[in-house]
Design a protein that fits this description.
Largest sheet: 5 strands, parallel
Number of strands: 7
CATH topology: Rossmann fold
Shape: globular
Helix content: 40-55%
CATH class: Alpha Beta
CATH architecture: 3-Layer(aba) Sandwich
CATH superfamily: SGNH hydrolase
Structural class: alpha/beta
Distance between the termini: 64 Å
Strand order of the largest sheet: 3-2-4-5-6
Strand content: 15-25%
Number of helices: 9
């Protein structure tokens, strides 16, 4: 009799768990208009090292969405260095959306992960204080199997951000998408932009 009662109960728990996981997979999107300004903020992956300037991900994103995308990538920059220049960029461009893609140089140089998390959090807070929405990009730690470090998902949950956590791990794990071990090629940047565009909805003016 006990077995008869427990089996349906176990099935019910499993179904609830599956439903919860399905709910977590929903993609959070950012709402913009045609006259919106996007600030693509990051290091060499934002600047577009490994491809011509017109093939960087911000350039691909601008063409895909039909909006103004400012390429504010600076090759070799750590998150601490990025934090020192974001305020001036926010004041200069007054963006509606800031795409934050930092961490690669921190992780390559084995800088403290808690320092990366703190710098990213301050970037998020400054962006939001200037009235901008934020799209956070997860950056993988150099390893055989590439996965973004947990700080990105933690920050996305804490600040209820749109986030693309897996695309860089997937692309950097594909030789056909890379120009070298740590940078994408034109095809890779196009795929990167496409993944980011999936989180952005453009509404008519």
């Amino acid at each position: 009799m006990l077995k008869t009662v427990r089996f349906p109960l176990i099935i019910a728990v499993i179904l609830v768990a599956i439903a919860s996981l399905a709910g977590c997979s929903d993609t959070k999107t950012v709402q913009l208009s045609r006259d919106s300004v996007i600030l693509a903020f990051g290091d060499s992956l934002t600047q577009g090292v490994g491809a011509p300037a017109e093939q960087s991900y911000p350039a691909h994103l601008a063409r895909a969405l039909g909006v103004n995308v400012i390429n504010a990538g600076n090759s070799g920059e750590t998150s601490a260095q990025g934090l020192t220049r974001i305020k001036a960029l926010l004041e200069q461009y007054s963006p509606d959306l800031v795409i934050i893609c930092y961490g690669g140089n921190d992780l390559l140089r084995r800088l403290p992960v808690n320092q990366l998390a703190n710098n990213l959090e301050q970037m998020i807070q400054l962006s939001q204080a200037h009235g901008a929405q934020v799209l956070l990009v997860g950056v993988p730690k150099p390893a055989i199997f590439l996965d973004p470090v947990p700080v990105y998902s933690d920050l996305a949950k804490r600040y209820q951000l749109a986030a693309e956590l897996d695309i860089l791990s997937d692309l950097l794990d594909d030789k056909g998408m890379k120009s070298d071990t740590i940078h994408l090629n034109s095809k890779g940047y196009q795929a990167f932009a496409k993944a980011l565009a999936a989180h952005i909805d453009i509404t008519p003016n």
